[in-house]
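Quick note —
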Amino acid sequence: MTKPTALTIAGSDSSGGAGIQADLKTMVAFHVYGTSAITSITAQNTFGVRASLHLPPALIGDQIDAIMEDVGADAAKTGMLATVAIIEAVADAVRRHAIRNLVVDPVMVATSGARLIEDEAIRTMSETMLPLAYVVTPNVPEAEILSGIEIASVEDMEAAARAIHGLGPANVLVKGGHLAEGATDVLFDGRELRRLDARRLPVGKVHGTGCALSAAIASGLARGWAIGEAVTVAKDYVTGGIASAFRPGRGGAVVDHSTRPHDLGQRTRAPGEGTPEGREP
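Predicted structure written out below.
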């Protein structure tokens, strides 16, 4: 028996709330076999990040090579890519292995406020990683940086999604959780804008939501789902995880990954479904 496979290329969160730890928990929830390439190691707990160490770009590339030459990946996602050299190494590996269904989560700032990317790496992210992405998943602050548009409304999110799409990704999902009202996300595929509405839950800040969402989307794509279905189920999964968020330590809350995607057993893999058009291996 085989399972769909997904690769997370991201940083390690020692608290288990975000990063590769959250990604792998999400992949298990979606019945996807998860593999990882660690880009950075952080020392953190539920109060925040204390220190971080970025791994050598060559070692990151070796990790990706080792996985792709053996297990492979039906989908992949990126998280914390902190430096220009790391971004370039990851982009080179993505091209070298023709990785399709790539979800780029342009991680820039942790929930605690800690900066997770160098200033000069933001341009490299825009110019190098985004054109390789099947879908990019910025939150409002990240979308403002990538698009140059100040966002105060869903209409602004839609304008930002269009602008970010012009940077090369096949699809753009702008996450609206940072706006004052509601929790509406905007999905743009280059032709159609779609709003995904959800009620705002009165739980305060929850660590690891962006990691869980991007990993859930990657898992859906690995299972052969089309982008709309992957995003919809991923959003439902994270909303459920936020609703039952808990505090493993004395600090902030984290996503509850024991939530089961609501229709996981009802979907079947369709030949070619979820494969980016024009992105043949």
